Amino acid sequence: MKERRSGRSVLIRGGASLSGEVRVPPSKSYSHRALICSAFSNGKSKIENISLCDDSMATVSVLSGMGAKIEIESETAFVHGTLPIEPENVLCCEESASTLRMCLPLAASQDFFSVFTGEGSLLKRPVGPILEALSSLGVEVMSRGGYVPVAIESKGFASDGVRISASSGSQHVSGLLLSSPLSKNGIKIDIADEMVSKPYVDLTVSVMRRFGVAVERKGYKIFEVRPGQSYKGINLEVPGDYSSASFLIAAALSARSNISLLGLPQEKMPDSQVLDLMRSFGADLMFESGKLLVSGKELRSIEVDCKDMPDLVPPLVVVALRAEGTTRIRGVSRLSTKESSRVQALISEFSKMGGKLRLDGEDLIINQSGRLRGCKVSSWGDHRIEMALASAALGAEGETVIVDAMKTSKSYPGFYDDLAHLGAEIDARQ
Question: Model-level pTM?
Answer without folding.
Answer: 0.94
